[in-house]
Amino acid sequence: MTQQIRTTLLTGFYELVSQFKGNPEALLLNSQISPQQVESLDGYIPLKSVNELLDKSADHLNCADFGLRLAHSQGAAALGSLGAAVLQSLTLGEFLNTAIKQLANPPYNLRVELQKKGKQALLRFHCVDDLQAGTHGEAPLALEQCREFLLGVSLTALQKLCGINFQLEAVHLQSEHPLHDEYESFFGVPVEFGREKDAFILSGSSLLQPTEKCNPSLRPLLKSYIDELLQQGEVSLVKQVQQLIYCLMPLKRCSLQEVANQLGMHKRTLQRRLRDRNLVFEDLLDRIRRERAEYYLSGKQPPMSQISNMLGYREQSSFNRACYRWFGTTPMRVRRQLMAGVAAREAVNSE
């Protein structure tokens, strides 16, 4: 089972190697990676090839923290094709659970685990262990650069998703000894070596931290997700329209015209094709907004202003009016009613 990562995770490779007066194309070819693929940031690359590339680059350039430096170059690309996970998640915990399931499937086949331990949460990375297990009697792989790169990319992704408030408590590394002295500078927390698994240690409460779907830096990620969605020819028109609504709402661009543009058709054509299915675009949008509003209001977070933004309203007053139309009362009262219902069900289940 080949483990793969998106080529976008090599964003900044050319620039980083060039800073050290190296030859990026030679290093790529030496690791059986196409320079053209990395230039275009298209498709997927076997994790084993990326591991070889990182190890050779660190050695050739005499740069012991090469993996972390490359991870630092990422930005929103660090979230890869996890657009669906971002859109479906209200909190960091929900995102991690959705992303872990997605990464376990082809073409990634990457194993990550989220565990609760007392007041802490452990995000454990088994990806490199699985890579080592697949060598079948070959010479042991040098994996330290790859470990640091995957952890660095993961931290960058979580920071982009949750904003500046995201904070680790500690980092665990299986490596017996440090390769350099940049760990605490990069991760911002103590790093412990010789541990059982590579892991991030977080406070359990951080899993309740809301994600920032409206963060402008995530727009390229959502655009990438939209492009992938539209390439899935087997997906029905209604399903595509619904998914585009989910994508475009937080960007405040969720109109019939914009959805038609994304689908490459005239808006009247889209209206007619939906009408043939007894559907109206505005009704679909309103139905999805109501469903998401009910979901968002069922817990203490996020704040009303963020819910309004995620539903694509430009003004808080527009969200308030929509709540009156849907539920007959204010968003705050809806939240109190929904939370009381959740508490009552939990009390019944605990008996």
TrEMBL record:
<dbReference type="InterPro" id="IPR009057">
    <property type="entry name" value="Homeodomain-like_sf"/>
</dbReference>
<dbReference type="InterPro" id="IPR018060">
    <property type="entry name" value="HTH_AraC"/>
</dbReference>
<feature type="domain" description="HTH araC/xylS-type">
    <location>
        <begin position="239"/>
        <end position="337"/>
    </location>
</feature>
<keyword id="KW-0238">DNA-binding</keyword>
<keyword id="KW-0805">Transcription regulation</keyword>
<dbReference type="InterPro" id="IPR032687">
    <property type="entry name" value="AraC-type_N"/>
</dbReference>
<protein>
    <submittedName>
        <fullName>AraC family transcriptional regulator ligand-binding domain-containing protein</fullName>
    </submittedName>
</protein>
<dbReference type="Pfam" id="PF12833">
    <property type="entry name" value="HTH_18"/>
</dbReference>
<dbReference type="Pfam" id="PF12625">
    <property type="entry name" value="Arabinose_bd"/>
</dbReference>
<keyword id="KW-0804">Transcription</keyword>
